[in-house]
Amino acid sequence: MSVFNKLMRAGEGKILRKLHRIADQVNSIEEDFVNLSDAELRALTDEYKQRYADGESLDDLMPEAFATVREAAKRVLGQRHYDVQLMGGAASTWATSPR
Protein backbone atom coordinates (compact mmCIF):
# COMPACT_ATOMS: atom_id res chain seq x y z
CA MET A 1 0.00 0.00 0.00
CA SER A 2 1.38 3.38 -0.92
CA VAL A 3 2.10 6.07 1.64
CA PHE A 4 -0.70 8.18 0.10
CA ASN A 5 -3.22 5.37 0.57
CA LYS A 6 -2.08 4.83 4.17
CA LEU A 7 -2.56 8.53 4.90
CA MET A 8 -6.00 8.53 3.28
CA ARG A 9 -7.11 5.53 5.39
CA ALA A 10 -5.63 6.73 8.69
CA GLY A 11 -8.97 8.13 9.88
CA GLU A 12 -10.90 4.91 9.29
CA GLY A 13 -9.82 3.37 12.59
CA LYS A 14 -10.93 6.48 14.47
CA ILE A 15 -14.33 6.40 12.76
CA LEU A 16 -14.80 2.69 13.49
CA ARG A 17 -13.92 3.21 17.16
CA LYS A 18 -16.50 6.01 17.35
CA LEU A 19 -19.12 3.79 15.70
CA HIS A 20 -18.34 0.95 18.11
CA ARG A 21 -18.75 3.37 21.04
CA ILE A 22 -22.25 4.25 19.81
CA ALA A 23 -23.21 0.56 19.63
CA ASP A 24 -21.69 -0.02 23.09
CA GLN A 25 -23.67 2.91 24.51
CA VAL A 26 -26.91 1.56 23.02
CA ASN A 27 -26.15 -1.88 24.45
CA SER A 28 -25.42 -0.45 27.89
CA ILE A 29 -28.85 1.21 28.14
CA GLU A 30 -30.88 -1.40 26.26
CA GLU A 31 -32.38 -2.92 29.42
CA ASP A 32 -33.73 0.49 30.47
CA PHE A 33 -36.16 0.35 27.54
CA VAL A 34 -37.39 -3.23 27.93
CA ASN A 35 -39.77 -2.48 30.81
CA LEU A 36 -41.29 0.64 29.26
CA SER A 37 -44.87 0.41 28.09
CA ASP A 38 -45.64 0.95 24.42
CA ALA A 39 -47.04 4.40 25.29
CA GLU A 40 -43.89 5.32 27.22
CA LEU A 41 -41.73 4.14 24.35
CA ARG A 42 -43.77 6.19 21.88
CA ALA A 43 -43.59 9.27 24.12
CA LEU A 44 -39.80 9.21 23.96
CA THR A 45 -39.95 10.46 20.36
CA ASP A 46 -41.55 13.72 21.50
CA GLU A 47 -39.03 13.97 24.32
CA TYR A 48 -36.12 13.58 21.89
CA LYS A 49 -37.61 16.17 19.54
CA GLN A 50 -37.94 18.64 22.42
CA ARG A 51 -34.42 18.00 23.66
CA TYR A 52 -33.09 18.54 20.13
CA ALA A 53 -35.11 21.76 19.83
CA ASP A 54 -33.62 22.85 23.16
CA GLY A 55 -30.14 22.49 21.72
CA GLU A 56 -29.06 18.95 22.53
CA SER A 57 -26.98 17.49 19.72
CA LEU A 58 -27.92 14.51 17.58
CA ASP A 59 -24.75 12.79 18.75
CA ASP A 60 -25.92 13.11 22.36
CA LEU A 61 -29.42 11.84 21.54
CA MET A 62 -28.32 9.02 19.26
CA PRO A 63 -27.74 6.21 21.79
CA GLU A 64 -31.14 6.71 23.42
CA ALA A 65 -32.93 7.12 20.11
CA PHE A 66 -31.30 3.99 18.70
CA ALA A 67 -32.14 2.02 21.85
CA THR A 68 -35.75 3.17 21.46
CA VAL A 69 -35.86 2.07 17.84
CA ARG A 70 -34.21 -1.25 18.68
CA GLU A 71 -36.83 -1.98 21.35
CA ALA A 72 -39.69 -0.93 19.05
CA ALA A 73 -38.38 -3.23 16.31
CA LYS A 74 -38.17 -6.12 18.78
CA ARG A 75 -41.79 -5.56 19.79
CA VAL A 76 -43.31 -4.89 16.38
CA LEU A 77 -41.17 -6.99 14.04
CA GLY A 78 -39.75 -9.52 16.45
CA GLN A 79 -36.29 -8.56 15.23
CA ARG A 80 -33.44 -6.92 17.14
CA HIS A 81 -30.92 -4.69 15.37
CA TYR A 82 -27.38 -6.06 15.32
CA ASP A 83 -24.57 -3.80 16.48
CA VAL A 84 -23.33 -3.42 12.92
CA GLN A 85 -26.76 -2.10 11.94
CA LEU A 86 -26.58 0.48 14.72
CA MET A 87 -23.13 1.45 13.50
CA GLY A 88 -24.45 1.82 9.94
CA GLY A 89 -27.29 3.98 11.19
CA ALA A 90 -24.87 6.20 13.07
CA ALA A 91 -22.64 6.55 10.03
CA SER A 92 -25.65 7.39 7.89
CA THR A 93 -26.86 9.97 10.42
CA TRP A 94 -23.45 11.64 10.49
CA ALA A 95 -23.34 11.71 6.68
CA THR A 96 -26.76 13.34 6.31
CA SER A 97 -27.13 15.62 9.34
CA PRO A 98 -26.10 19.26 9.35
CA ARG A 99 -22.91 19.92 11.27
Commentary on this structure:
By secondary structure, the chain is mainly α. 82% of the residues lie in helices and 0% in strands. It has helices spanning 3-34, 38-53, 58-76, 83-96. Helix 1 (3-34) crosses helix 3 and helix 1 crosses helix 4 (83-96). It is globular. It starts with a helix and ends with a helix.
The count of helical stretches stands at 4
**What is the H/E string?**
HHHH
Count of individual beta strands: 0
N- and C-termini, Cα separation: 32 Å
Strand content: under 5%
Structural class: mainly alpha
Shape verdict: globular
Considering DSSP H and I runs of 4 or more, what fraction of the residues is helical? over 70%
Which segments are poorly predicted (pLDDT under 50) over 5 or more consecutive residues? none
Largest sheet: none
Radius of gyration from the alpha-carbon trace, in angstroms: 16 Å
Mean pLDDT: 90
Q: Could you outline the blueprint of secondary structure elements for this entry?
A:
Layout: H1 3-34, H2 38-53, H3 58-76, H4 83-96
Keywords:
99 residues, mainly alpha, 4 helices, 82% helix
Quick structural summary:
This protein has 99 residues and is mainly alpha-helical. The protein contains four helices and no strands.
